[in-house]
Amino acid sequence: MLNKVQLIGRLGTNPDYRCTAASGTPVTTFSLATSERRKDKDGEVKEFTEWHNIVTWKSLADTCHNYLTKGKLVFVEGKIRSRKYQDKGGQDRYITEIVADQVKFLEKVKDLCWFDDQTDQEEHPC
Fold first, then answer.
1. How many Å apart are CA 97 and CA 101, to the nearest integer?
2. I need a surface site. Which of 8, 36, 64, 71 has the fewest CB within 10 A?
3. What is the rounded distance in angstroms from the CA atom of residue 16 to the CA atom of residue 103?
4. DSSP string across 5-30
5. Pairing of strands 92-105, 45-57
6. What is the pLDDT of residue 118?
7. What is the mean pLDDT of residues 95-105?
8. Is the pTM of the predicted complex or chain greater than 0.90?
9. Radius of gyration of the chain from Cα atoms?
């Protein structure tokens, strides 16, 4: 069986960072927008956006928290997970998330060194 997702999109929110109560494990969540253009029933080209809930854990959670902000373009690879939880009112709620194994930054990120650009290497030495 295979459960694998690959997405390229922009963050819809700044990452939400917290640690689990039981073990103190870092977890970061954020929304990711992916878009596609296609013709609607009238033949007009429209843009359709899909929103994805992304979850990262441990060191990947720390990295996303430290360097990502709303609007950044990223590549996300992971697996789809659906789960049930109870809200504050005790109601059962369901959510589908992408648990990311990998998040690649597709734009330069402030305070992160990039070795492929000589100018940036001089401005931001590691």
1. 13
2. 36
3. 15
4. EEEEEEESSPPEEEE-TTT--EEEEE
5. parallel
6. 44
7. 97
8. no
9. 18
Structure tokens at 46: 């429209």
Q: Which residue has the tokens 């992916």?
A: 34
> Tokens standing for 65?
């928290």
Q: What pLDDT does 79 receive? A: 98
Predicted confidence band of residue 108 (pLDDT cuts 50, 70, 90): confident
Q: 64 and 99 in contact (C-beta within 8 Å)?
A: no
Could you tell me the two tokens for 101? 């194994």
* Alpha-carbon gap, residue 45 to 43, rounded angstroms: 6
Q: What is the DSSP letter of 106?
A: S
Q: List pLDDT tens digits, range 17-40.
A: 999 999 999 999 999 999 999 988
